[in-house]
Amino acid sequence: METTETNNRVTWLTKEKRPIVIAGPCSAESEEQVMETAHRLKATTKSDIYRAGIWKPRTSPGSFEGVGVVGLPWLKRVKDETGFPVTVEVAKAKHVELCLEFGIDILWIGARTTVNPFAVQEIADALKGVDIPVLVKNPINPDLALWIGGVERLKKAGIKEIGAIHRGFSNLGEKYYRNRPQWQIAIDFMRRMPDVPMICDPSHICGRRDILQEVSQKAMDLDYDGLMIESHIDPDNAWSDAKQQITPEVFGTMITEMKLRHDYEDNRALQSDLDRLRAVIGHIDDEIINLLSNRMNAAREIGQYKKENNMTIYQNKRWNEIIDRAKTQASKSGLSEEFIIRYIKAVHDESIDQQEKVYKE
Ligand code: PEP
Ligand code: MN
């Protein structure tokens, strides 16, 4: 892995090497498993940093909760034998203290910890005056402010190298993903904190092997800075997250097959072509906003009529008609039904708000 020197120290999350790839088992299980995974990952030449969970936050008691502190010397051995920098999840001050004692290179804060400002603050306090990179996973709930808040707590504690990990958001009833990606939240994060590298964790988004490649590729297409992927020498028999882990060799092939994209921000010819194509979108967006404004004027007029005749704002039959009409229109126009329903619901919400304003006048 390429590294750069800043203030005489190595910066692991530098923008120089893209994508930065973190791989390793969900959990460290035994010294042999940790070492064999590391050597086989090294042989693929496709990973830069080695991960392994030592303390595992599990949803149910009785699940494997990690080997604990005995696993830390194994990671030190990984470092010595392969040269991989190593990263471990920390959830409290004691974990931080132990990781520093055993020379862990990078820490990461898990999704179940990011949700809790007390816990993040405890970690931040334990890191005051320490120069170590920290990665912050998104909280399990889709709350951008909480994710950004976690990063800000670390910044305030003086941590200079901070990265974000997008691992998806838990969502009742979700079937395709283990954790729904909700890409827009990560994109908003990147817009708000452009200096914080964004790493995608397709393993926890997918929860299964068959769609890891498509999710990883999507992250690359969206200009993510890196990937964190769980890899196990015997995935089916892993002690945690068995369904989503892949062997180091499958991991190697997957990264090799990935299509790397670039934003080409400095390429004038490409950017001016793109600007021309984007101008079309800009005009269309302006027109859509104008039309929406006309639509809201019409809604307010209807609101006035309903008010004068003492009618309810929401009328179930009418709403069903709007949905059916939008669905038909969507399929005729080649638009996804799911998208059009989301759109029409947003418009309908606003119409109701506008009519409520009329009722209050
Ligand atoms: C993990 O990386 O193994 C893990 C526990 O992830 P998350 O915090 O995203 O659930
Ligand atoms: Mn895991």
Quick recap:
The protein has 361 residues and is of the alpha/beta class. It is built from 13 helices and 10 strands.
Descriptive account of the structure:
It is a single chain. 34% of the residues are buried. This protein is of the alpha/beta class and 361 residues long. 50% of the residues lie in helices and 11% in strands. The strands form 2 sheets. The protein has an 8-stranded parallel β-barrel with strand order 3-4-5-6-7-8-9-10, surrounded by 5 helices. Strands 1-2 form a two-stranded antiparallel sheet. It has helices at residues 31-44, 72-82, 93-101, 111-114, 117-126, 144-156, 183-192, 202-206, 212-221, 248-257, 268-308, 316-333, 337-360; strands at 4-6, 9-11, 20-24, 49-51, 86-90, 106-109, 134-137, 162-166, 198-200, 226-230. The chain has 13 helices and 10 strands. The protein starts with a strand and ends with a helix. Bound molecules: phosphoenolpyruvate and manganese (II) ion. The site of phosphoenolpyruvate has 9 residues, from α4.
**DSSP summary, beta strand count:** 10
**General shape:** elongated
- Strand content is 5-15%
Kindly state the mean pLDDT as a whole number? Answer: 94
CATH superfamily descriptor of the largest domain: Aldolase class I
Strand order of the largest sheet: 3-4-5-6-7-8-9-10
- As a whole number of angstroms, the C-alpha radius of gyration is 24 Å
Count of separate DSSP helical elements: 13
The biggest beta sheet, please? Answer: 8 strands, parallel, barrel
Describe the structure using short key phrases.
Chorismate Mutase Domain, subunit A; binds phosphoenolpyruvate; alpha/beta; two-stranded antiparallel ribbon; TIM Barrel; elongated; binds manganese (II) ion; 10 strands; 361 residues; 2 domains; 8-stranded parallel β-barrel
